[in-house]
Write a structure and sequence with these properties.
There is one protein chain. The chain is built from 2 helices and 4 strands. It has helices at 11-27, 30-49; strands at residues 6-9, 63-69, 72-79, 84-92. Strand 3 and strand 4 (84-92) form a beta hairpin.
Length: 103
Amino acid sequence: MASKIDVIWSAKARITYFRVLEYLEKNWTKREIIIFSKKTDAIIRAIQKNPEIFASSSKHDNIRKALIDKNNSLFYAMDKKHKKVFILTFFDNRQNPESLKFE
């Protein structure tokens, strides 16, 4: 049995995740919030099972991009040695990709 991979959320990931939820709350319905949350949870579980499931970012080989829905992606990095995945940020795919920062 494979050992468990820990998932660690950065402060920026928490902030950007809650910004998406706030946007959905203001502009959509509770249903969209639930769908987004469930998709995010499912993607994180998939990453825990297989951290290399999603493709590397085009600009950063050590960062991977998971598409949550057509408007949102999450970016994460792996530490294979310590069996950790770091959720770095959520990103609105409608924004200019040049505005994406991982710090």
